[in-house]
Specification:
- The complex is a heterodimer of chains A (about 260) and B (about 325).
- Chain A is of the alpha/beta class and about 260 residues long.
- Chain A has one domain (about 1-255): Glutaconate Coenzyme A-transferase (3-Layer(aba) Sandwich).
- Chain A has 9 helices and 14 strands.
- Chain A has helices at about 1-5, 15-25, 40-50, 80, 90-100, 140-145, 175-180, 220-225, 245-255; strands at about 35, 55-60, 65, 85-90, 105-110, 115, 120, 125, 135, 150-155, 190-195, 200-205, 210-215, 235-240.
- Chain B is an alpha/beta fold.
- Chain B has helices spanning about 10-15, 35-45, 60-65, 85-95, 105-120, 135, 185-190, 205-210, 245-255, 260-270, 275-280, 285-290, and strands at about 5-10, 25, 50, 70-75, 100-105, 125, 140-145, 155, 165-170, 175-180, 195-205, 215-220, 225-230.
- The radius of gyration of chain B is 21 Å and the shape is globular.
- The chains are: A alpha/beta (about 260), B alpha/beta (about 325).
- The interface between A and B is large, with 62 and 53 residues.
Chain lengths: ~260, ~325
């Protein structure tokens, strides 16, 4: 371990929580007010605040605006998010005025499925009338995707089931789907701008465009990524290898942020 | 004449106000979840309830396991990071042991339903759902014309529970309820209901409440019953009183995975006990002690007081 650490660049596996959290944290370099979910987003915002963006402002759907947690939050309603926070609002104020009112720069989400337009399924696997798997459902995601300035999605898996050609159910629609329903109902937000998976980073620079692979994690190839994606995914001309996390990033995650390995797994 | 006290005991409050077939809301967004009151509903064997709860976490899983609930109105079906609700999943995925009706919204959809219910509005507009499959899943989510010429917009119907049950840090005997920390949609859920029952960590003097009136989230006129029930939110938490029993949330995942072990748990922790005091006594003392929190006092604010002067007197 010590020997490995003489190199500043770590060799943690691209599918590891550490790798995903570091890639996600780097996406927050120049972001302002972030609506953070629980799990990998919790690690990413904490790491970003300690590294690339000390001024990041943390908002949680439980109503906490400007959280300064003294420890790792185990859930979005953890008391550690409340003690010392700048404000705690009712959820009507948080969802109505802060989120739908347009004050959130970045929403941070997970999903079971994401499609080529960045629409998300967090509700059902299989036919929703008789689902194979009952997933948690919409929660705040159906509000975050249309109303946040942009959304970053972290996927725990990258395969043809989780990046399908068609979602089993669309919980949180991309602006593309909103436009298809009614062009006048297109939401203010960009929708999903970035998807981080165990294989790659995909970006959607155009509000009405498709996800494009821009970064492929070390050890994987374009054909690996294409084979694991159920639609004919576009690859950026400038596609590059995802920079590996530094050992310092990994150390912060393991020894200071998530010492009990609650989300690191 | 002195105002009538609303303080009662939990058994009487549930017996008097919660009846089979009712629509019952138990709110608390990860905080101040009324577990003791939910357990009393289980103990009294209520049936055929419609349970309204944004995040049906393990309290909902327990009420459903006990057979109290046939319909769930909710917006997030999981126990946060602690995993699945297996009883909910068994019923939804396989109808095992019975089908559970589910009426599903997003979080803000549920909040807007409570708000419409509280303000007696016919519906509430929300800028979600355009392009979503949710209106197909739940036909109660509908689209209307904007009479002012804007784009069409989705609306949700009001939610008016027969009874809303909450937990709070404190109340006075008149029923003024004070809470702090995460407030969720409790105020809206209270004002939307016909009857409101609030369990509290402490019943305090009216002077305590009136020293800080902004902290009263639900005024007495909206409250029907106050029950002093220390520890009544365990395994969730009460800001400033005790912390969340995260270990139990994780343990429930394993308990509820097997229906017979979930029933066994209900036997040991609900049916076989008279109430919350006995429940707290049955907890491992180190477990309960481990949830104690250190103090972090708020500074007090000055509300001021009109000075009595001869000029001011008439």
């Amino acid at each position: 371990m010590n020997q490995a650490r003489q190199s500043p660049v770590s060799d943690v596996a691209p599918s590891s929580s550490e790798f995903l959290a570091v890639v996600a944290a780097r996406e927050l370099r120049d972001k302002g007010r972030v609506f953070a979910g629980v799990g990998l987003p919790t690690l990413a915002v904490d790491l970003a605040r300690r590294t690339v963006n000390p001024n990041i402002e943390l908002v949680y759907e439980s109503g906490v605006c400007g959280a300064h947690p003294a420890g790792l939050a185990e859930g979005i309603a953890d008391s550690v998010l409340v003690s010392g926070a700048e404000s705690v609002l009712t959820m009507q104020a948080l969802f109505g005025y802060v989120l739908q009112g347009g004050s959130i720069d970045v929403g941070f989400l997970g999903a079971a499925q994401v499609d080529r337009w960045g629409s998300l399924n967090t509700s059902f696997i299989g036919d929703w009338r008789r689902p194979t798997v009952r997933l948690p459902g919409a929660g705040g995601a159906a509000e975050i995707v249309p109303n946040a300035g942009e959304c970053i999605v972290i996927m725990r898996r990258h395969d043809r089931g989780s990046l399908p050609s068609q979602l089993d159910f669309c919980t949180s629609p991309s602006p593309v789907r909103a436009y298809a329903e009614d062009p006048r109902m297109v939401p203010p937000g960009h929708g999903v701008s970035t998807v981080i998976t165990p294989m790659a980073v995909l970006r959607r620079p155009d509000k009405f465009g498709e996800l494009v692979v821009t970064d492929i994690h070390p050890g994987l190839t374009v054909s690996d990524v294409k084979a694991a994606t159920a639609w004919d995914v576009m690859i950026a001309d400038s596609v590059r290898e995802t920079p590996r996390p530094s050992w310092e990033d990994v150390r912060l995650l393991r020894e200071e942020i998530d010492t009990v390995r609650l989300y690191l797994r | 004449m002195a105002a009538r006290t609303k303080v009662t005991d939990l058994r009487s409050a549930i017996a008097e106000h919660v009846h089979d077939g009712m629509t019952v809301c138990l709110e608390g967004f990860g905080h101040l979840i009324p577990f003791a009151a939910g357990h009393e509903i289980v103990r009294q064997g209520r049936r055929d309830l419609t349970l309204c709860r944004m995040t049906p976490d393990l309290l909902a899983d327990q009420l459903i396991t006990a057979g109290c609930v046939t319909r769930l109105v909710a917006s997030f079906f999981a126990s946060g990071s602690a995993g699945s609700l297996h009883e909910v999943r068994r019923r939804v995925e396989r109808g095992d042991p019975e089908q559970l009706d589910v009426e599903e919204y997003s979080h803000y959809g549920m909040i807007c339903r409570y708000q419409a219910g509280a303000a007696k509005l016919p519906f509430f507009p929300i800028r979600s759902y355009a392009g979503s499959d949710m209106p197909q899943l739940n036909p109660q989510i509908r689209k209307v014309n904007d009479p002012f010429g804007g784009p069409d917009i989705y609306v949700v119907p009001p939610l008016n529970p027969d009874v809303t049950i909450l937990h709070a840090q404190r109340a006075d005997r008149l029923g003024n309820v004070q809470m702090w920390g995460i407030l969720g949609a409790q105020q809206e859920a209270a004002f939307s209901a016909d009857v409101v029952i609030v369990t509290v960590e402490e019943v305090v003097d009216e002077d305590v409440v009136r020293s800080d009136p902004n902290r009263t989230i639900i005024p007495a006129h909206a409250v029907d019953a106050i029950v002093e029930c220390p520890g009544g939110a365990h395994p969730s938490y009460a800001q400033g009183y005790y912390d969340r029993d995260n270990a139990f949330y994780r343990e429930w995942e394993a308990i509820s995975r097997d229906r017979s072990s979930a029933l066994q748990w209900l036997q040991e922790w609900v049916y076989d006990l008279p109430g919350r005091d006995a429940y707290l006594s049955q907890l491992d003392p180190p477990r309960w002690a481990g949830l104690a929190v250190a103090d972090r006092e708020s500074g007090s604010v000055n509300y001021g007081r009109r000075r009595t002067s001869t000029l001011g007197q008439s």
